[in-house]
Amino acid sequence: MNTLIKALGLSLCAMLAGCASQSTNGVASMTKPLISIAVLKAKPGQEQALKAGLLALVEPTRTEPGNLDYVLFELRDDPGTFYMREAFKNQAALDAHFAMPYFQRFAATADDLLNEPLKLIFLEQVSN
Question: 50-107 pLDDT, tens per residue?
Fold first, then answer.
């Protein structure tokens, strides 16, 4: 199992443990949209390959029925460091995204492209 898939699995397990123990008005927070920022840092010399791989995920992901947001950013002061802002309707939609062939193709290349493990930061929206 590659580093990207391991990182996603660990992050999701931690996030789900928190979601399962919380509720809002009697509704488990697992029914809330899942909003996250993925931080991906390219290996030296792999900046353009990582950027191309991430860009290839954007359009097909946006067409997924459970996707709410999927936008790629590059850190201005540190080219080769990317932030993917993403939101999915629920855990099932995120799981479906991870199972998509285009995501699996990207995940298979991640160990060759990433300088450090993916950092997946889950967020709770607190304003409109």
Answer: 999 999 999 999 999 999 999 999 999 999 999 999 999 999 999 999 999 999 999 9
Instruction: Find the helix packing angle between 3-21 and 101-113, rounded to 10°.
Output: 120
Contact 103, 57 (CB under 8 A): yes
Check residue 12 and give left, alpha or beta (phi > 0: left; psi -120 to 50: alpha): alpha
Which residues pair with residue 9 across a beta bridge?
A: none
Question: Which pTM was predicted?
Answer: 0.80
Residue 107 identity: A
Angle in degrees, CA 117, 11, 5, rounded to 5 = 55
Q: Which residue has the higher pLDDT, 31 or 125?
A: 125
CATH number at residue 64: 3.30.70.100
Domain that includes residue 99, residue range: 3-19+31-123
Confirm whether 26 is domain-assigned: no
Residues β-bridged to residue 23 = 28
- pLDDT category at 9 given cuts 50, 70, 90 is low
Mark residue 116 as left, alpha or beta (left: phi above 0; alpha: psi -120 to 50; beta: remaining): beta
